[in-house]
Amino acid sequence: MKVLYEDNHIIIVSKQPGEIVQGDKTGDTPLSETVAGYLKEKYAKPGNVFVGVPHRLDRPVSGIVVLAKTSKALSRLNDMFRNGSVDKRYLAIVKNRPPKDEGQLENWLARNEKQNRSFAYDREVPGSKKAILKYRLIASSVNYHLLEIELLTGRHHQIRCQLSKMGCPIKGDLKYGAERSNPDGSISLHAWHVTFEHPVSHRTIDIYAPLPDDSLWQSFSANLKTGDDLSISHGQ
């Protein structure tokens, strides 16, 4: 866990692939408890430490997780993530080049609870929800392509499912069509950048997460810039 930002109301950390954000049936220690332990030790706090979880990342995904240190911040962050006022950008490494270098994907996603996966359709089907994202091709190597993703909705496994539907499964993502797994069990999807208005102070929070310490990710690092020159067009 790497702390990217902290103040009295929120803490933003970079999650490692394999970590769960919130407790589940596996019984593994979640990131929320790790952060609580960090805060308890750092500030020598007696008793329990409040850490609220307004959003999650899939277990094999790395990158930014925003957590709340107060109930006021949690309530407001919950609303912000729900209404889409948090700008979330991801990076994905895919095997196949997308049909267009930049585009918008709109599908209807239906979740299968037993299989813990979603299925993408071109039209509405029973139990489905509309899913929208924008993507942009940033760089290519001999075998792989790096995409920047902007989520416009927040559906179960949305990026994984929609990129697979486009014919570009994420590297290592066996569940959604990758040919082989990554050695560490991760998938090559990284929550890279968030921008939002602080829930209490109302100032702009603009945070980037470092890329995973992996040779393929690092080979793409020279193609990335943390600024307005690397952003998906909103006028598209």
Question: Your description of this structure?
Answer:
Strands 1, 2, 3, 4, 5, 6, 7, 8, 9 and 10 form a 10-stranded mixed β-sheet that branches. It is globular, with a radius of gyration of 18 Å. It is 17% helix and 32% strand. The chain is of the alpha+beta class and 236 residues long.
Task: Throw out a few tags for this protein.
single chain; 236 residues; ten-stranded mixed β-sheet; alpha+beta
Order of helices and strands: EEHEHEEEEEHEEH
Largest sheet: 10 strands, mixed
How much of the sequence is in beta strands?
A: 25-35%
Query: What is the helix content?
Result: 10-25%
Total helix count? Answer: 4
> What general form does the structure show?
globular
Cα(first) to Cα(last) distance is 36 Å
Class derived from helix and strand content: alpha+beta
Instruction: List low-pLDDT spans.
Output: 228-236
Mean pLDDT: 92
Question: What's the number of extended β-strand segments?
Answer: 10
Radius of gyration: 18 Å
List the helices and strands and how they pair.
Blueprint: E1 2-6, E2 10-15, H1 31-42, E3 62-68, H2 71-83, E4 87-94, E5 102-112, E6 117-121, E7 129-140, E8 145-151, H3 158-165, E9 189-197, E10 204-208, H4 215-220
Parallel strand pairs: 3-9
Antiparallel strand pairs: 1-2, 2-3, 4-8, 4-9, 5-6, 5-7, 7-8, 9-10
